Write the structure tokens for this entry.
Amino acid sequence: MRSFKRNLVPYTLLVISMFLHTYPLSAAENNLSQKIELYKQQEDKRQALAFGNEILASKQITLSQKIKVLENQASIYFTLGDFTQSIIVTEKIKLLAQHAQLMHVEAKAHKKIGVYHYYKGESAQALASYHKALVFFKSFSDVIQQANLLNNIGLVESTMGNTLEALEHYEQAEAIYEEHGSEIDKIDIRYNIATLYIRLRLHKLAIEVFLDIIEKRIAINDDPGLASVHLDIGVSYKQAGQYQVALEYMLKALTYYQAQNDLFNLASAFHNLSEVYNEMNQPFKAQHYAEKAIEISEPRGYNNSHSGSLNSLAKSFFYQGDFQGALSLLEQSSQIAQKTGYKQQLTSNVALFSLIHASLGEPVKALSSQREFVSLYNQRANKALTEQLARFESEQLKQQVIQLQQSKKLQQLEVEKSEQQKNFIILAALLFLFVAFFFYRRNADIRLKHALKIQVKQRTNELESRTQELKQANTVKSQFLANMSHEIRTPLTAVIGEAEAILCGDVPEKFIFKEVKIIHDNSLHLLELINNILDLSKVEANKLELELQHQDLHMVLVELANMFTEQAKAKGLLFEITHKLPQPFMFEFDSFRVKQILINLCSNALKFTSKGSISINISIVEKSLFFKVQDTGIGLSYSQVQQVFESFTQGDSSISRRFGGSGLGLCLSEQLARLMKGRIEVESTLNQGSTFSFVLPCNYHDEIIQVQTIKKIAADIPVTQKSTFSGEILFADDHDDNRRLITRFLTTLGLDVITARDGKEALDLYEMCKPQVILLDIQMPEMDGIEAFTILRQKGCTIPIIALTANAMAHEVEYYLELGFDGHLKKPIERKQFIATLAKYYGEGVCHKEASDTLSNIDLSDLVAQFKSNLVLEQQDIIVHMKNDDLTKLATLAHRIAGAAQMFGFALLSEKAIKLELAIKANKASDVTELTQEFLNEIDQVLW
């Protein structure tokens, strides 16, 4: 009764206010009502906001009308994704309602404010507003509104990682909906519980619930709800590792949100797509979607989406090897997550911090982040355990209460029999409950202590195991560095020693060619070693991709015969390739990697065989190709065979001294064979020879396989070969000296060369001349190589376009090939690769060795003199740019000189130019002056 009287006055005021607002007091107010109705019908949101402000400024506006206009404005801002402005407008509604004691309006305002805070990712503020609204609706006995708020509170608690609290609120809301709610209410609560399963990593259970919800929402034509389910079931499939299914559902949601221009959910969809592509190890696509999510969420204050998208972008940068960029993005993500209390994101960030610091060579920071991650993980695990224990004890207490109530009912039935018996039963029951509770608590404490002891022991063992793994990894790294130091220093010692002997005049002029050949051979050995290391690293990191094409195996066999027949003959050995394959023999394989394996096996056979023969026998057995490389060399013992495929491993330590080699070739070959779903087997007898069998799956067509007589590939080599190419080639490079040097190479090989100074000139010359091949430098003024390539392809140019650049890192080359370039050549020119690349398009019947000899005999003295002459002028430009503090032009000039210096063999000058360019691009102003002076000094040395 007191409660009813206490609420009577506000309700009376509410009724009077509604009565006054229902019946207009004047014509002015009636006219204003018409304006409000027109305002609600405005389709242009910005115009509607302006119209609403005009209505609010009217002196005739009533309180009810003002609240309606403000509610509509808050809704418009929410539709536009401006949640901050929605909060500001709704705060005005709350103040108006408080002043007029309109408690129902105030309650709805609190609820709306909570919704807007939740969309902003401000969980704590949202939770506070929801609880205030809940107090009001409980006083109104509005059970549906109570259930809605309990549902919303559960959603916020789930976001904050409070799973037990979230589940309790969902259960309360579900109980109300079962009795009073609509079908949509029941579907919504089931949906929220399913999203909680996602956070608990119960993806199978979540998928089952989501599939049921999808059917129900289709039945009621709930398109927005269906889109949200598509997005969340995609997340569940991602957790289950079914990435293609996840992408299908997420793209459905993305299509809907794009059509509706729903920016909040669009940002979430882009973020989740980025996460899937990161899981699929496709960092470029992950980066694309993460950047789109950040573009939407950052300016609009969508904190959770912004924080998560920064994490996704950091992962993609990490996969691409940009560790500093990943670290910067992750720090931004953690700042936002810390501000909003997004615990799950913070835990995920800490784990990635550990990996980034380890990759940057910062072990202290890496271990610190790892310990922080373990601590956060343990906190979550302990919290989950505590929640389960609390839930278990709660259920036990409920059961005890039920038992007590039943005992009381029994006691009431027996009151009539005997009061004394009643007292005795009560006393016995209480005594029994006391003893039972005592033993229960004691056993529970024992079990808990035992469980905690086991858990501590397990965690200790895990930490010891991880420590041991880190020590082992450190040992492997040290061994790797030691081996690499030895293998790299060996050819470098020869290169530096021979070069110093030539520079100091210790080598007679007639022997200079021989010494330069030694330098060249050791440089090629060093390049081969580095390429093997990079390939092996790619294979072990699962980043090496095969280029499968339908091609003729005979082309590979002819190249092998050309390569090893003369080498074997020089050692007095017989080299032959035999097979029973049709001509041609076409199937899908990666010719480069197959050839790489066979070259490694043949090179080893040639290296370790001093007399006798080397043969390759090719046969087909059950849709598999068998390449048997057999030699009569030194052979291997049983123990040597067991470790022959380990990296840096040879038969014994004397082998490296006698024959050379790093021990990487067979390891890399075995890894490549596995990548192609094949294998390499070895049979060997010490001092009698070895047989290496390379087995490759082969999907050939039975109707083209015919038994033929055994042929020897050496006999298939064309008798008439030429040493030059023929045809036209368009070559673009911005540096005059580079252009002159490479033009001389091309013309010496027999090609007609059309030269261009930049991408724009290359486009014009292509239209005029229509060459067979285009050779494009990447970095050029006016229009660079990439832009020129894009325009050429858009214009329908289908001829081969090859990238020419000093940027020869693996990821850069991969980027050029992904853009669609047909090949890549690096500066300085490697003549074998240069000739091999041109031979693909001009070289039918050309002997590569004769073409290489032709290039070796080119007189470049005039071009070197011209380069030095130009260097004098460029030295003056460097001084002018430095005086004018024009660092942009200075960096451009340094880049041009670096590329040309490499081409003409001035490696140290190129190195100084690159250091200066990188310092300018990194904004290290303090280093620029010193590096410029070193650069100028090195130019003086070259000119001298």
Observations:
- Residues 1-26, 384-398, 648-660, 702-721 have pLDDT under 50 and may be disordered.
- The two ends are 108 Å apart (CA to CA).
